Automatic annotation (TrEMBL):
InterPro entries linked to this entry: Bacilysin_H2HPP_isomerase, Cupin_2, KdgF, RmlC-like_jellyroll, RmlC_Cupin_sf
Species annotation: Mangrovibacter plantisponsor
Full protein name: Quercetin dioxygenase-like cupin family protein
Domain Cupin type-2: 32-90
Keywords in alphabetical order: Dioxygenase, Oxidoreductase
GO terms for MF: dioxygenase activity
SUPFAM superfamilies: RmlC-like cupins
């Protein structure tokens, strides 16, 4: 029911990106993702629905065939299997929520 930040690990994914797994169960997962300026979230897709809330920074996001610059307070929805990715324009942090949870993120 509770996930305390002091009990989580910030995992270095390389190339200026790191991630922290937050609360999750079989139906939902929250993940904090940190980006350095210039870091890239490569274009990809997955069968999960995903909401992204921009906590800080500035990102150029592509979802499907649309590209927009987003900043703190903006939210993005990614339907299952849609291609999406980003470039970090100013160092920042995202809060991603997935349903169902991302089993592939767990060790």
């Amino acid at each position: 029911m509770f996930t305390f930040i002091k009990e989580t690990e910030l995992e270095d994914l390389g190339a200026g990106v790191s991630r922290r797994i937050l609360a999750h169960d079989g139906n939902m997962m929250a993940v904090e993702v940190h980006f350095e300026t210039g870091a890239v979230g490569p274009m990809h897709n997955h069968p999960h629905e995903q909401l992204t809330y921009v906590l800080a920074g500035e990102f150029e996001f592509t979802i499907g065939d649309e590209t927009h610059v987003v900043t703190a307070g903006d939210t993005l929805y990614k339907q299952p299997n849609i291609m999406h990715g980003c470039v970090c324009l100013k160092a920042g942090k995202l809060l991603d929520t997935f349903t169902p949870m991302r089993q592939d993120f767990l060790k």
